[in-house]
Every structure is written in C-alpha cells, then in structure tokens.
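Q: Please design a sequence for this.
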C-alpha cells in the first residue's frame, strides 16, 4: 500500500456491516497500565502444569483425533461431560443433542444472531449490556429496544410495558438478551421472582430468551438461583456457557444449550471444521476426574478476595457522591459518577496516570453511560488493584473539586 493512502482499493467493496465497525485493535489490557478493563482471568491462576499434563494424556489416549477436523457439534466426550455438569451445577436437564460446542460463548451469541435475526428485526436487551453484545447487535442491523436494570436485575415491569407498546405498533421482538447472574457490566443478579416473570412474558409474547451465563459458577455469596432455561423448560430459552472463566480463556471453548431442532440448525451455520477438537480433548482430560470442580472452588476464593479488596478500597477512597454495585459473584463492579463527571472524557487522563478502565458508553446502545465506569477486579494483582483504585479516586476527587 502506498504511504499516505487511505487503504486498499477493495475497501470500496466492504459490506455495510464492515463499514460500520470500529477498530478492534484497542481491546484488552495495555502494557504498562493497571488494567480494570477486561474480564480477563487472573494470570497467576491459570493452570499451566495441569493443562500440559492433560494435553499429554489427550495425545496418548486419543491418537490422531485431537489433531483432526471434528464434528460440527463438538467432541462427544466433552459434550457428555457437559451434560453431567449442567444437570449437577445449573439444574439443566439435557442430552447430547441439546448441546453444541462453540469458540467461546461469544461465537455462540454470534451464531444465535445468525439463526434468528435479519436486518431490520427488533430485539430486546437489558441495558447496559455486555459490550460484545452491543457490537454484535449493531453489526446485525437490528433495532434494539433497551430494558433498564436496577439492583434486582432486569426491570420486568418496564419489559412488560415495552412489549405491550411494541405489540400496539405491530412489532414482535424476536429475542431478549440477558445475563441474569452477576451481569456484565453492572454485576447485579436478577431475582427469582423476576426470572419467573421473564419466562411468563416470553410465553405470552413468543420471543426467544438468550441467557448468557458466563459467570454462573463464580458465586461468592447469596443463594444459587435456577436458570431461565430450567424455569422455561427449554421452550423459549437458549443458554450460553463457557470455559473461559473457569478453565482458560485462551482455549476458546463455550457451549449453547437449546432444543435439538435449533442445535441442528446452529450446526449447519458453523463452518469451522468442528470447534477446536484439540482444545476440546484437552479440556475433557482436564475435567473428567473432578479437577474442574476443585478448580472452581479455588477461583471462588480468589475472586471473592479480589471483590472484597476492591469494595474495601472504594469504601475508603472514593469521594462522596460516587456509588457502586456490590456483586454476589462474577468479575465486575459498576461505578456511577455525579452528572458533572464524564467517564470517557477522563479516560485519557487516567491512562496518563497509569490506569485503564471501561467507560460505560461501551455498554449502551444509544450513547448513554457517560457517568459510568466498569471496573473488572479479576485481572489486576492485589497490590496493583489497591494502587489503581487510589489513583482513580484521586483523579475523580480532583475533578469534583474543580
């Protein structure tokens, strides 16, 4: 490409979806900064030796198959293990034909968008929402109707009102996207009463429930609640899960649970030669003897400690007028700033001082969230976390004093 040019000539042939995309190179942790940005697993908790041993066992036990193309629905051994885990831990009764392996839950979400959505369709989503879902719905060319959250989760009263309003305009939303446990980005958990109401509304208005439950296993306090999929019996709900938070994010293994007829169609949409047969065999060898259950308990202790450390620093350091969520699990705390503060505008100054965070605007469909910051407590080591929160508190205090 000639220096100073705006790009290759073929840029003129980009799709409408590609032209609307931003530059993805800024995602993730930045070198030299204390990062509160991404929901990355703690680096020190990654099971290096155990993964190496599981890899050796997989190669000895399974011969060529970890290195071959695999079935579209995924390695059968890992699917059977998931059937057992889902029944035991999530209360989801399913069989192998209810499951498909994906390259993380994010690929599962993308496939479900391909399965249900055409440009111009209307979908419902809790708002704020996971930034990956915000991007996916935008590129799908759909109209998103946001449903606010409070400290008890999805505002089902507003959801019901919106559904009735849309029906009056002749609009039938195709699906509702929700993270009921330790929601990303707010950290809140939807109550059992509200979960039941969501299922009732799905039955009444005939929309699909897309339940993203990436953090299900990482509960630090409170009562474990039934999934929307279990409450619904799989009639309207599709369930997304992942190994990224409980095993290793780099293995890129997730799953979808749905009615077998939908799973069959998802298999037809996949064109990847089977989701990483190598990683799936290694994960099976790692998990098959109860190692995963022990690891989850270790992660719960680690991330509970990190959450408590973060909350303690916020209590001690944050200026008056700033509030935050208190999650029962997961990776995130959601800060709400006074109206005169602007999280995106402050971000360059935060980076100059050595910290990085996610402004709330990345989690809204309509440009909201300027007074919000998502803080991930999973990645930064204890000392960095403490130092980073002190820097952030100083910065916010200075801005409030102006």
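A: Design:
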């Amino acid at each position: 490409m000639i220096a100073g040019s705006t790009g290759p000539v073929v840029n003129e042939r980009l799709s409408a979806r590609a032209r609307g995309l931003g530059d993805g190179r800024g995602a993730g942790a930045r070198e030299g900064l204390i990062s509160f940005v991404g929901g990355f697993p703690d680096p020190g908790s990654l099971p290096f030796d155990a993964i190496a041993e599981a890899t050796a066992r997989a190669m000895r036990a399974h011969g060529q198959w970890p290195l071959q193309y695999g079935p579209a629905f995924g390695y059968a051994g890992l699917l059977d293990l998931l059937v057992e885990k889902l029944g035991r831990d999530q209360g989801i009764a399913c069989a192998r034909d209810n499951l498909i392996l994906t390259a993380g839950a994010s690929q599962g979400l993308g496939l479900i968008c391909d399965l249900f959505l055409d440009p111009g369709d209307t979908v419902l989503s809790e708002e704020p929402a996971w930034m990956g879902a915000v991007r996916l719905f935008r590129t799908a060319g759909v109209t998103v109707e946001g449903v606010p959250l409070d400290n008890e989760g999805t505002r089902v009263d507003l959801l019901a009102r919106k559904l009735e309003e849309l029906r009056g305009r002749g609009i039938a939303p195709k699906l509702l996207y929700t993270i009921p446990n330790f929601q990303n980005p707010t950290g809140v958990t939807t109550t059992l009463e509200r979960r039941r109401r969501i299922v009732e509304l799905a039955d009444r208005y005939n929309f699909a429930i897309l339940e993203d439950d990436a953090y299900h296993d990482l509960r630090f306090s409170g009562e474990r609640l039934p999934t929307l999929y279990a409450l619904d019996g799989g009639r309207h709900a599709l369930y997304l899960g992942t190994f990224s938070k409980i095993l290793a994010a780099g293995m890129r293994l997730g799953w979808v649970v749905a009615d077998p007829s939908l799973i069959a169609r998802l298999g037809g949409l996949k064109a990847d030669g089977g989701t990483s047969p190598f990683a799936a065999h290694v994960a099976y060898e790692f998990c098959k003897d109860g190692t995963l259950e022990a690891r989850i308990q270790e992660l719960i202790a680690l991330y509970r400690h990190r959450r408590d450390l973060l909350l303690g620093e916020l209590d001690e350091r944050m200026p008056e007028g700033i509030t935050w969520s208190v999650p029962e699990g997961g990776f995130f705390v959601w800060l709400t700033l006074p109206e005169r503060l602007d999280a995106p505008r402050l971000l360059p100054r935060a980076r100059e001082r050595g910290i990085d965070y996610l402004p709330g605007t990345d989690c809204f469909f309509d440009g909201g969230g300027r007074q919000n910051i998502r803080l991930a407590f999973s990645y930064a080591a204890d000392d960095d976390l403490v130092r980073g929160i002190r820097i952030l508190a100083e910065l916010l205090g200075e801005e409030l004093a102006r």
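Q: Thanks. Anything notable?
A: The longest strand covers residues 143-150. The mean pLDDT is 94.
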